[in-house]
């Protein structure tokens, strides 16, 4: 076989390598109030448990070794802030409201003529659109069954991925085309936009929620903390924070080191004290990296990303080629000028937190990973 072709096939094979777990759950079978549990987790692990997606919910469920029926605290707490978010877990930065919207205490949104309208989550039954891996063209599936927003969300998560997100103008146009092509432009259609006032203990901005039907109900007006319900799927309910339950902590596998070192020094530091500089193989790891770098003291943060100048190619330290990509415009895709100095990859700590190429002698904060 042609050597180049063989190499390309090898790269394709490498791109399907499964990612390693970036967060580990620890069940603590001691009854504490929510605040006591939070303190315990921060002292012994990273924080009370955060969940980003359906994967996390099943890992949470598995982490709780059920010795008898009980409620179990996780790290979600009610605050006074009430902000719009996407069901998929992303913050809502693009909000294309129809005129005069949002106009009430409503907490969910439908789309009509490309614009968003807030609407009561539980009172109304609408058709909806799921994001899906089944439809290779659009990544979207239209469901004509009428459901309230939470049922629609559960349906999408069980059968597809989630209720659809509309994160920018481009996705808005794609969705509108899909709506026109599906001949449903006259209908109100649920999208994944909702708002709530819950916040994760570790400050993660994940808007993923997995409520048990009719929860959170804030019974008695004092239920400001979140627990896994005593039911087979371990979906979530609210309860009073002073109740004493066992709890789940999580341990982050990504650690931001707030020292300013060159790339090589950072690499040595991570290998001596942890495992390695972080490799960002997927959108999920990128999201965790984005959470971590918010606390950085430098404008960019080193990743385990290095450039092979002679081959004009970027590789992760873990050996994989760069399949998932998040380069800032003008970075990573054109040949590097490395006559004077080798180039390494960093992630911007502000803005849209994309990757940039920098000379390796720059002194930056960096992220180590810590598995095993
Ligand atoms: Ca409205
Ligand atoms: Ca409740």
Automatic annotation (TrEMBL):
<feature type="domain" description="C-type lectin">
    <location>
        <begin position="25"/>
        <end position="122"/>
    </location>
</feature>
<dbReference type="InterPro" id="IPR016187">
    <property type="entry name" value="CTDL_fold"/>
</dbReference>
<dbReference type="InterPro" id="IPR001304">
    <property type="entry name" value="C-type_lectin-like"/>
</dbReference>
<feature type="signal peptide">
    <location>
        <begin position="1"/>
        <end position="20"/>
    </location>
</feature>
<protein>
    <recommendedName>
        <fullName>C-type lectin domain-containing protein</fullName>
    </recommendedName>
</protein>
<dbReference type="InterPro" id="IPR016186">
    <property type="entry name" value="C-type_lectin-like/link_sf"/>
</dbReference>
<dbReference type="Pfam" id="PF00059">
    <property type="entry name" value="Lectin_C"/>
</dbReference>
<keyword id="KW-0732">Signal</keyword>
<keyword id="KW-1015">Disulfide bond</keyword>
<feature type="domain" description="C-type lectin">
    <location>
        <begin position="258"/>
        <end position="369"/>
    </location>
</feature>
<dbReference type="InterPro" id="IPR018378">
    <property type="entry name" value="C-type_lectin_CS"/>
</dbReference>
<feature type="domain" description="C-type lectin">
    <location>
        <begin position="142"/>
        <end position="250"/>
    </location>
</feature>
């Amino acid at each position: 076989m042609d050597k180049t072709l063989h190499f390309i096939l090898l790269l394709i094979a490498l791109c399907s390598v499964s990612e390693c777990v970036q967060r580990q759950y620890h069940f603590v079978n001691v009854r504490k109030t929510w605040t006591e549990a939070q303190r315990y987790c921060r002292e012994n692990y990273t924080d009370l448990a955060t969940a980003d997606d359906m994967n996390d919910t099943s890992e949470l469920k598995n982490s709780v070794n059920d010795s008898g029926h009980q409620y179990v605290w996780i790290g979600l707490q009610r605050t006074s802030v009430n902000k719009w978010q996407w069901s998929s877990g992303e913050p809502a930065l693009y909000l294309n409201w129809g005129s005069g919207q949002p106009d009430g205490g409503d907490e969910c949104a439908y789309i009509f003529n490309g614009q968003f309208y807030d609407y009561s989550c539980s009172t109304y039954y609408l058709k909806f659109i799921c994001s899906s891996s089944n439809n290779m063209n659009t990544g979207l599936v239209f469901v004509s069954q009428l459901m309230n927003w939470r049922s629609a969300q559960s349906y999408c998560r069980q059968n597809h991925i989630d209720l659809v997100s509309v994160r920018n103008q481009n996705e808005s146009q794609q969705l509108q085309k899909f709506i026109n092509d599906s001949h449903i432009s006259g209908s109100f259609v649920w999208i994944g936009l909702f708002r709530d006032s819950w916040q994760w203990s570790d400050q993660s901005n994940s808007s993923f929620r997995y409520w048990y039907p009719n929860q959170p109900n804030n019974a008695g007006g004092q239920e400001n903390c979140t627990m896994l319900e005593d039911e087979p799927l371990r979906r979530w309910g609210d309860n009073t924070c002073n109740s004493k339950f066992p709890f789940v902590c999580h341990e982050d596998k990504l650690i931001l080191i707030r020292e300013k070192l060159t790339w090589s020094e950072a690499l040595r530091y991570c290998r001596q004290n942890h495992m390695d500089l972080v490799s960002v193989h997927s959108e999920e790891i990128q999201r965790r990296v984005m959470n971590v770098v918010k606390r950085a003291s430098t404008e960019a943060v080193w990743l385990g990303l290095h450039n092979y100048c002679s081959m004009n190619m970027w590789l992760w330290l873990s050996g994989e080629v760069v399949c998932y990509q998040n380069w800032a415009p003008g970075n990573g895709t054109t040949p590097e000028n490395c006559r004077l100095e080798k180039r390494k990859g960093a992630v911007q700590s502000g803005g849209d937190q994309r990757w940039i190429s920098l000379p390796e002698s720059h002194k930056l904060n960096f992220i180590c990973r810590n598995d095993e």
